[in-house]
Amino acid sequence: MCAPDCWKTSYVRSTLMENKFDVRSRLMENKVDLRNRLMENHFDNKFDVRSELMENQFDVRSRLLENQFDVRTRLLENKFD
Hints:
This protein has one helix at 6-80. It is mostly helical. The longest helix has 75 residues, at 6-80. It is rod-shaped and about 115 Å long. The protein starts with 5 loop residues before the first helix and ends with a helix.
């Protein structure tokens, strides 16, 4: 037979095991949630960087064309002066 406090010990052990399971479950959920958020941020950042690079590339090409036009115009002006 169990001692008078045997049921208390059993109850406490059972509660501890349930809490341990709950904590582990929550930790796994949080881990998965964090991984998902990290991946979303990674792809968002990757997209933002690519967009910015494309914009910068367009700006640089536009400026190069403008400068090329200016140089050619000046060369022609100098040729006829």
